[in-house]
Amino acid sequence: MALTLTVVIAAFVAFLAAVVTAVLSRLDGSQWPAAVLHGGAAFGGTLTLGVLLIALYRSV
Fold first, then answer.
1. pTM (2 decimals)?
2. Which residue from 23, 42, 43, 56 puts its CA 20 to 30 A from 8's CA?
3. CA distances from 33 to 23, 26, 36 (A)
């Protein structure tokens, strides 16, 4: 149960990073498709690092 909650929290943080990145990218002058791609890259990177940190923490 705790592991599932941790992964859900990591996904939520990644989603927030994606939204903030997309909005900031759009405010910086990017077109919407480019801003969404930047947000997607932020989501993927943040989720990857989050799961990596969870795995490292759980293995100790």
1. 0.88
2. 23
3. 12, 9, 5
- Consecutive H or E run containing 23: helix 2-27
Q: How far apart are CA 60 and CA 42, in angstroms?
A: 27
What residue has token string 């705790």?
2
Here the tokens at position 18 are 């994606």
Per-residue pLDDT of the chain (60 residues; tens, 9 = 90+): 788 999 999 999 999 999 999 999 999 999 999 999 999 999 999 999 999 999 999 887
Distances (CA, A) of 4 to 11, 14, 28, 46: 11, 15, 36, 17
Tokens of 40: 């997607």
Instruction: Quote the tokens at residue 10.
Output: 């990591």
